[in-house]
Design goal:
There is one protein chain. By secondary structure, the chain is α/β, with parallel strands linked by helices. It has one domain: Rossmann fold. Helix content is about 35%, strand content about 15%. The chain has five helices and six strands, in the order βαβαβαβαββα. It has a six-stranded mixed beta sheet, with helices on both faces. α2 links the parallel β2 and β3.
Length: about 170
C-alpha cells in the first residue's frame, strides 16, 4: 500500500478566543500546497481515499488534495489524525484500509512525523515535517508491526523550484 502523509499548509495565526481547530489556510498556504500537490500529481500520486483531521486547516488541505489529485471518493474525517493523537492510532487506521492501493492522510505535527517514524519501524520521531510537506511510505497493512519503506519526501520549498522529480 502507498501511504501519503500530507501536513496541512500555512494557516492563520492563533488568536485569543478562537479555537485552534478553527484556523483556516492562508492564501500563501494554499498556493504553496497547490505547488506540492501539482508536482505530486505529475509524479502519478493517485490516492483512492483521503483521511483527514477534522480541524479546518487539515480539512481544507484534504479538499485541495482531492481536487488536484483526482480523488473522487468522499473525504473521511477522523480523530485519529488530531495533532496529539498517538501514532499507533494512525497505524490502526491504515490497517483498516487494507485493500486500498493508495491512501492519503492529512493532518498536523507532531503526530505526522511521529506516525511516519512509526511506519518506518522506529519508536521515536526521526523527522519534522514542514507545512505543506508530502511524503510517501510503502508498506503492507497486513504486517503485525509497521515496516514501511520511505519512497520520497517533497517539501513546499522543493516544489516551488519546479525542477524536482519525485519518485521513480
Amino acid at each position: 500500500m502507498e501511504v501519503y502523509i500530507l501536513r496541512h499548509g500555512i494557516a492563520e495565526e492563533r488568536r485569543t478566543g478562537r479555537p485552534d481547530s478553527a484556523r483556516r489556510l492562508t492564501g500563501a498556504g494554499k498556493v504553496k500546497l497547490r505547488q506540492v500537490l501539482e508536482l505530486a500529481r505529475a509524479a502519478g500520486v493517485r490516492p483512492s481515499l483521503i483521511l483527514t483531521s477534522p480541524y479546518v486547516r487539515a480539512a481544507e488541505t484534504a479538499e485541495l488534495a482531492a481536487e488536484i489529485l483526482g480523488c473522487a471518493d468522499p473525504i473521511v474525517q477522523t480523530d485519529a489524525l488530531l495533532p496529539f493523537s498517538p501514532p499507533q492510532a494512525v497505524w490502526r487506521l491504515i490497517r483498516e484500509q487494507n485493500g486500498r492501493s493508495a491512501i492519503l492522510l492529512a493532518g498536523h505535527e507532531p503526530l505526522l512525523s511521529e506516525a511516519a517514524s512509526l511506519l518506518l519501524g522506529e519508536s521515536r520521531a526521526l523527522m519534522d515535517l514542514k507545512k505543506g510537506a508530502l511524503l510517501r511510505i510503502d508498506l503492507d497493512p497486513l504486517d503485525e508491526k509497521p515496516r514501511g519503506v520511505l519512497q520520497w519526501l517533497l517539501t513546499a520549498k522543493l516544489a516551488a523550484g519546479g525542477t524536482t522529480q519525485v519518485g521513480e
